[in-house]
Structures are given as structure tokens and as C-alpha cells.
Design goal:
This protein is an alpha+beta fold and about 240 residues long. It contains four helices and 15 strands. The chain has two domains: about 90 residues, Elongation Factor Tu (Ef-tu), domain 3 (Beta Barrel), CATH 2.40.30.130; about 140 residues, Threonyl-tRNA Synthetase, Chain A, domain 2, CATH 3.30.980. The structure holds zinc ion. The site of zinc ion has 6 residues, from α2.
């Protein structure tokens, strides 16, 4: 099990850690600031600094088989550390911060478009949600205006935990039909954008919607009878 430092503080860029295991899948540590790919948000990349001064490039971060198990996937050809070795992890912060801003933007998109979400994906240069809705229900200008109003309002974004039983008693909280909320330890993490959105989510978010900055709806397109895709991007990108 890995202590998931990003879950309590998404703004941590570095941490000390100890290597707990190394195998063909990658490096496991006792704690990490690296988010593992999941819930539509890509895994983090960065560097693992060793005590001899050398650095190992981490190309991706993925979930292991166990609860809260995180695997840091080295770039090809990197020399691997040994179990027990103390290391320092340094996040590729610009990429992660873009993921945080886009991920939070998708919560706002959930609030602006009143339709069931069937899927979603964050990248460093755009993000998208798929909705089960008719095409003519999606007005590009109205969505863009709605998003930017929520950004400008500077709503606080907070996380809290509720018991699994409480979530089961309130199934309306789960808006993303294709992504089950992350569970474990008998509790689930809720993300609340004050006055706009409340749903279970395990990803990393900014503290305030103002940090997202101005957004544009890049494209709205049909992905089949069931799915309509809305792609958003930073206006200054
Ligand atoms: Zn989220």
C-alpha cells in the first residue's frame, strides 16, 4: 500500500519516499505525490532522484492490483533503484497542474450540461466529457458562457469523505455512468464545487475555480446515437 499524499494536498510537487518493491511493472514506494492513471485523468510523470545524485525518469504512473497501490513506471532503459532505498520524487508539475485545471473544468461542465455523463478524459491540452443527450440540446455558446461564469465566480473546491452506505443511499451523486467512484476502506471521496457540483471523485483538482482560467468549447461532435462529445480547452492555449 502506498500513502497517497496527492489526495490530501494536490499541490505537493515533491516528497521523500522509500522504495518498497521493484519489478517489471515499475517502482513501488511507501508514499507518493504522483497520481496514478484513473477516472479519466492521466498518470503523472516526473523524476525520481537517488542519493548518488542520479535521476530516474518516471514516464507514467499506474494503479497496482492492491488497494491504494501505485506503480511508478520508469522511462525505457532507466537503471532501477533497490528496495529500501530512500529517494526523492519530483513531479512534472506543469503537466499535472494542467490536468488539475482541466479535471476541475470537467466538474463545471457536468454542472452546465444537464445530461447523464457516459465518459470523460483529461489531457494536458484539452478535456472532454461524453453525454447521453440529443445533439440539439448542446449549445456551444451557452455552454462556454456557463463554464466561464463558474470560473469567474471563483467557487471553492473541497474534498470530503462519506461512508459507502451513505453513497449507496444517494445514488444521484454518481453522475458518471461509465466510471464507478473509487472505493476502499469503506468510504468514498466526494468533491464539491461550492454551489455547482457534488460527486464522488478520486482525481486531483484546483482549490478554486478561478485557477482554471478562461475556457473555450473547442468542439461538440456526435460519437454515435448515445454519445455526444464536448471538448473544452484553455482559451489562451
Ligand atoms: Zn474530479
Amino acid at each position: 500500500m502506498t500513502e497517497l499524499l496527492f489526495r490530501d494536498d494536490a499541490y505537493l510537487r515533491e516528497c521523500e519516499a522509500v522504495v518498497t518493491a521493484v519489478d517489471e511493472r515499475g517502482v513501488r514506494l511507501d508514499r507518493t505525490v504522483f497520481y496514478p492513471n484513473g477516472g479519466g485523468q492521466p498518470g503523472d510523470s516526473g523524476r525520481l532522484l537517488r542519493q548518488d545524485g542520479s535521476a530516474l525518469r518516471i514516464a507514467n504512473t499506474v494503479k497496482g492490483d492492491g488497494l491504494d497501490e501505485v506503480i511508478h513506471v520508469p522511462a525505457e532503459g532507466e537503471a532501477l533503484p533497490a528496495p529500501g532505498e530512500p529517494v526523492r520524487l519530483v513531479l512534472d508539475w506543469d503537466r499535472r497542474y494542467a490536468h488539475m485545471r482541466y479535471h476541475t473544468a470537467l466538474h463545471l461542465l457536468c454542472a452546465v450540461v444537464a445530461a447523464p455523463v457516459t465518459g470523460g478524459q483529461v489531457a494536458a491540452d484539452k478535456a472532454r466529457l461524453d453525454f447521453a443527450v440529443e445533439m440539439d440540446a448542446l449549445d456551444k455558446d451557452a455552454i462556454e458562457a456557463g463554464l466561464n461564469a463558474l470560473v469567474r465566480a471563483g467557487h471553492a473546491v473541497d474534498a470530503r469523505w462519506i461512508a459507502d452506505a451513505e453513497l449507496d443511499a444517494n445514488p444521484g451523486l454518481v453522475k458518471t455512468m461509465s466510471v464507478a467512484p473509487p472505493r476502499g476502506h469503506g468510504r468514498v471521496r466526494l468533491i464539491e464545487v461550492a454551489g455547482a457540483d457534488l460527486q464522488p471523485c478520486g482525481g486531483t483538482h484546483v482549490r478554486n475555480t478561478a485557477e482554471i482560467g478562461p475556457l473555450v468549447v473547442q468542439k461538440i461532435r456526435s460519437e454515435g446515437k448515445q454519445n455526444k462529445r464536448v471538448i473544452v480547452a484553455f482559451a489562451d492555449a
